[in-house]
Fold:
Amino acid sequence: MSRNLDSSALVGTRWVEAGLALFTALVGAVVMYGSHAGGIGWGDAGPEPGYFPFYIGLLLSAASLANLMLAIARWRSLAEAFVSRGAFRQVLAVFLPIVLYVACMPFTGIYLASAGFIAWFMWRDRQREKPYGFLTIAAVSCGAALASYLVFALWFKVPLQAGPLAMLGGLLK
Structure:
């Protein structure tokens, strides 16, 4: 990776370092603020409920601010790209279908959503060395959903949300 930020860089390392340090400092501050409700002192019976969370938040914030100062001190040396546009597109090519998969689960149930998710990736990657045919994609995606049903609902007796498949005479409840 080049030392300088090139035109294909989406974000530089220096901004990720600074942003993460600020974010974790904020998390520490929120923990410290929330600890005050339970009390952060030392009572007759020992530490109050917010005592340890307060000091953990304090340590997190202090370490985060130290990291921010280090990032500022090394600002020039952190000029390399954290992620390029091409690499980020590859991440989105997996992340967006996962988001859609999770969003569909409450409506379709886990079995149909999983079959669709697996089928999508098999169809999308069918241009590789050995392309998948429609029957292979259908068999693998439906087989994986069936295997999930068998393992969880039948064998472990942990029924998963079946969605519309539950209407098949109570078969998948």
User: Anything to note?
Assistant: The CA atoms of residues 5 and 26 lie 28 Å apart.
